[in-house]
Amino acid sequence: MPKPIRSAVSLAFLSLLASAGSAIADCPSDQVMADLAKNILTATPVTAPTVATPEDALCAQDKLVQILAQEWGAPSGYKAGLTSKPAQDAFQASGPVRGVLYADMMLESGAKLPAQFAALPRFESDLILVVADPAINEAKTPAEVLAHLSAIHPFIELPDLVVSDPKTLTPLSITAINVGARMGVLGDAIPVQGSDLSPDVLAQMQVSVSDESGQKLANAPGAAVLGNPLNAVLWLRDSGVRFKQGDLVSVGSFGPLLVPKAGQTVTVRYTGLPKDPTISVSFE
């Protein structure tokens, strides 16, 4: 099984993460990360691993991804986390963080799963971008990013915050736990070629989250993610990621992370995208 390779991280990314660090630095041991992975797989809340530098946070993430990939599939792309103001405010972060997606984490729209599907389960409205070719690594603007995408997908991410007390999470520890990547509901592909997609369409779309009664739980424009969801690709690239054809990119939450409840059915609508698509997930 292919193992993820850790990329060099940009100075800006290092500076951002370092601002959340404390005084002791070390990459957590293999045993510490194996124990963490075991608890994640059994949905058991834990204390986040101690990391004090960006390098150690990414080192811990690499170890965790290699273990969990044995259960959840090989790395299939990347996720940008803490890309909206509500998400950043929740964890006192000044900017995004990055993680890795797994090949077998995707569920179909309409999926049903336990409300307690993880140690500390959450759900959020998101979007998946599909990389068409590696020339995307040279993109400088949202329009250039879009030109090197093959499709976009509506996406409800189902992350696991892992820890017993989410108030203890920092950008460094969130990076170490792979930004909570666990599962997600993937909607139908919207091809980029021949569509009405544009950077303006993606920035101006309205992403709304409603429950089974029609009550709106969250609503935000596409611009809530870094000014334009396509900017998530530019941020990930600048943080050290090198994309290849077929990579999936989760742009991050358009609104707050929400707590699933038993008996709840959540629907996310993307008003302004072609055909105003919706996707849903039910919690039991």
From TrEMBL:
<dbReference type="InterPro" id="IPR050772">
    <property type="entry name" value="Hydratase-Decarb/MhpD_sf"/>
</dbReference>
<dbReference type="GO" id="GO:0005737">
    <property type="term" value="C:cytoplasm"/>
</dbReference>
<protein>
    <submittedName>
        <fullName>Hydratase</fullName>
    </submittedName>
</protein>
<feature type="signal peptide">
    <location>
        <begin position="1"/>
        <end position="25"/>
    </location>
</feature>
<dbReference type="InterPro" id="IPR036663">
    <property type="entry name" value="Fumarylacetoacetase_C_sf"/>
</dbReference>
<dbReference type="GO" id="GO:0008684">
    <property type="term" value="F:2-oxopent-4-enoate hydratase activity"/>
</dbReference>
<keyword id="KW-0732">Signal</keyword>
